[in-house]
Structures
1.
Amino acid sequence: MLKRAKLGILIILSSGFILVIGVVSIAMSRGHDLPNAGRFAWQMVAKKVFFTEISAKTTTSQTYWMGDIQDKELSESSGLASSNLSDNVLWSFNDSGDSARIFALSTTGVALGQWQINIPNPTDWEAMDSFVIGGKAYLLLADTGDNLRWRPFVSVLVVAEPEIDSNNQIPLEPIWQKSFRYPDGPRDVEAVAVDTLRGEILLLSKRNVPNELYRIDLEQIKTSADLELIAEKVADIYSIPRLNQGEESLFADAAPHMGKPTGMSISANHLLVTTLKDAYLLNRADLTQPAIAIHLPYIGQREAITFARNANNSAYISRERHNGKEIADIFRVDFELP
């Protein structure tokens, strides 16, 4: 019996070793940064909490619960965008593990349909935005999630925003699609916004202290030329706080994640960023100005934010279902602009 037990343990260990070797081999063949992955994996295992001593100026705001997300298949609302074709309509998608599909829902959470996109399953969709160019409405979907900071390339794609009453049995075709990398190594990014005023896609890093803002020229994703696209660093953002000393006990296991940007939206020069704790307004015209805090209720894994249609002082917020199964909600926050 003892020999059999030892043999079983040996088989399990051998299988695990073979699995690890296989994963490492695949990762190396794809150019993944394994040393970086090791460092960030240890940081996550150690549940390191970053502290700042930033006391952000706040603005007056009011938050409203709008309703539950009715479509149970939208289990991890990782991106959110207001429609540019229909009033009171939002778009969202799940993050890693789902097929390439987007969900339409009302601003009160009513399910309005799903549309597949004619691409392979994404690696880790984490952010989306809506925008208008030349009178046409588009949705940008960002496959930029990278928890281990080891992906050599990430990507964005753009589809035409479908009408709510259009045939959702026909997959949407990508209009533009582009892979890119960051100039100073992989970054985990869950906050992306399209700034049509400046013709750029903005990307805000999640795990770095300070957070780093990057940009891609919107015109560059339209080209079919097989040129390596490198995001340009715009600025270090010092004014989005993590936790102050002593606050970690208030958030228990979520403490290491507080203050990390999980969603972003833009209206004119108002750059709106959400974290698990609060939202913050940045001035895109002058990023040296400190962020203005918008206090939000702590509702768990808040992953996405979007300005309301044709508004610059009102936004919608979604959160993921706990364990992918429990209630998820839509909130609206109205706030005074600085």
Note: The two ends are 73 Å apart (CA to CA).
2.
Amino acid sequence: MTENTAIQSPTLPQENARLMRLATYASIGVALVLIIAKLIAWALSDSVSMLATLIDSTLDALASLLNLLAVRHALTPADREHRFGHGKAEALAGLGQAAFIGGSAVFLLLEAGRRFVNPVPIESYGLGVAVMVFSIVLTLGLLGFQRRVIRATDSLAIGADSLHYRTDLLVNGSVIAALVLSSVGWVGFDPLFAVAIALYIVYSAWEIVRQALDHLMDRELPDEEREQIKAIACRHRKVRGIHDLRSRRSGIDTFIQLHLELDDELGLLQAHEISDEVEARLLEVYPAAEIIIHIDPVSVVPDEPTPEFPAAETPESDQGLLRKILP
């Protein structure tokens, strides 16, 4: 893997922050428009599937508001009490979103069960279908913008919000099917689709929780990115290897720590210059990263204990892989 194939942020941190703020504003705006449209359609049709998607949009608005507050806090610069910044506010917002989504799923399951026992005929299904088509078009536009922001910032909060709205596409399509089928046949289609929607919402909530926990527990960068970091560092002709590579993400910030192995006879100033050059190459790929490099004489490396994690690493050790990378 080369620098050109890296997962990296193509924009400066200031531009990333602007895009993230715009994404939160767009999300809230779309949710409010959909709430109004779906509220009218539900009042006229009395469809439990329409109620399901109305609840989902209402929770989307609350979650998006939570996102707005979390993103504003996450983008606050590091201060005396938080030297590593406030990026984990995004992960906390993700957990809050998951709680909202899980609560809506439980409510939908209860309401669908009630409708199975006491079926209610659906009225004005044509208006409901029209509202769902409108929702799909508006949601697709928002998802397109969110995809651009996620690609630029790798934001967990925006990613969780995008997962919300990707779920909405399936929800809206299911509601259209439920309304049409219920209008020509069994009214049980309406609560049946509501149950399916609720189960998918639970799955979506778990995906958000998993990603948030990865950030809060300082999960390592993906193996592909770790290998890329090693390759970039070892591409310098005076670097003899690296070890003890550690990495994590917190919001839009990336943290990279590594030990750089250099020839014993190098002077302190030379070693420092090499370290700066390696850091500059890494910053070309990870412009918003905080990089800490420790310099080790290559002769002492074998005597230093290097932790190995067979379950998380490739079958070969880091040292063996570096021998293949080095000329």
Note: The first strand starts at residue 241 and ends at 250.
